[in-house]
Amino acid sequence: MQVKLIKNVIRTWGSLLSLILPLTLQAAAWIQPKEKGLVIGNAQQYTSCQYWTKQGELKHGPCFRQSSIYPYVEYGALSKLTLILSPNFNTFSQSGERVPFSLENVLFGGRYALWEKDWSVFSAQLTYNLPARTGSFGNPLTPSSAYALINRQHFIDVRVLYGTGGALDKKQNNTWYADIEGSYQANMSGAADEIHCNLMLGWKTWGGTLVFELQELNVFTLNNPRNFTFPNYNLVTLMPDIIYWYKPDKAAIQLGVSQDLYGTNIGKGTAPFVALWWRF
């Protein structure tokens, strides 16, 4: 009984969108229960007034700003299969050039649980990014806009995920979870292919209504772009966030910030965000 309860708790808090950059949109290893779902409405403001060169030198450049709204939906189609859909709407500007607010891309796919035991799960995920807008933007010699342009790639992301967790006290008022992921992102519109390695740690407390999270995201280029104008970057990002379930297991609000720590050939950005969660 205790193991079953803990497992349900971890699933509830572990079916997480990492809510980071739209270009690295991802989820944790856990799946949604059959015929149950999760909707997250995300709003984010990204600003980058510095960029890293190909050699990793940090320089000042014209500020790149992007405002995004990207709803995210997961649905348990089968007992081991969760479907994923996430359209991304945004507007961005730099040096007097501006892209109006509209649909940028749609990410869709699925995640399948390969193995489950107690509160641990090992799963595989396949997603496809369908861009609604194409074309270049900005100056590739000051590559802050690479943050946005990766969304204009047709790409396939093949990912393996492992999640685990447990109770920190006998009454399960405090639980923890961890998620480790690795993926290969094949870009089919000219950008370099990418390897993603991500880590997420979470702590749920205060009677199951408050969650503290810390995520680290790592992108490594395979250095094979079609030409120098396409995204070809490395990036390390840290993201702390807090989730408060004002209706336990039903509705929540999330606040956080994404901060780039180091990279090459991409802007150094900061992106505060807010999200509303609803389980159905």
Automatic annotation (TrEMBL):
- Source domain of life: Bacteria
Tell me the leader sequence span: 1-27
Native organism is: Legionella pneumophila
Stated name of the protein: Transporter
Which keywords does the record carry? Signal
